[in-house]
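Researcher: Re-running this chain for the archive, since the previous output was lost when a drive failed. Same request as before.
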Amino acid sequence: MTKLLVATHNKGKVVEFAEMLADLEIEWLGLDDVGVMQDVEESGTTFRENSVLKARAYAAETGLLTLADDYGLEVDALDGAPGVYTARYGGVGLTAVQRYQKLLTAIQHVPEPQRAARFRCVIVLAAPDGTILGESEGVCEGRIALAPVGDGGFGYDPIFYLPTHQQTMAQLSPAEKHKISHRGRAVQAIVPRLRALLRSDIG
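Model: Regenerated structure tokens:
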């Protein structure tokens, strides 16, 4: 079975990938599973640049085929912020709840129709020699809720409202979320490449 490293310390994210691609013969590993403690500095100015940085660095360090993703929440009322700084929004050491509460405060006077936002995710797959073997992008459109609702998912899910479902991302079942989320769409877009690599027995 091919080992595939997901460039994250977030066990929830590793589980999400494993669930979305459960039909593939892959042993999914997170950074903690392979003893990588050092984080790669996300110094890129785009989601793709950060994904490439992480995928290449961790693949080189571990010798494993590595999948890295960078995602962000783009809020129109904040001119696209927090964007690539989504995971660091508000500064170092804040919890996910503190981060989304800060965002809610920043747009508290913005009326509901003008709270358009989207999650964007870029996935990059790298070989240990630094070769980029595949990449994809997924986008999920919605808006920022007036208050957090739901206890599923993670990160900003409780404040990301989906008009099509009349629920926040945090209210969706994992199966529903995987179908429509930014990461779910990016994952599905890279599936053909992963299947091709498995057939060639790479990694």
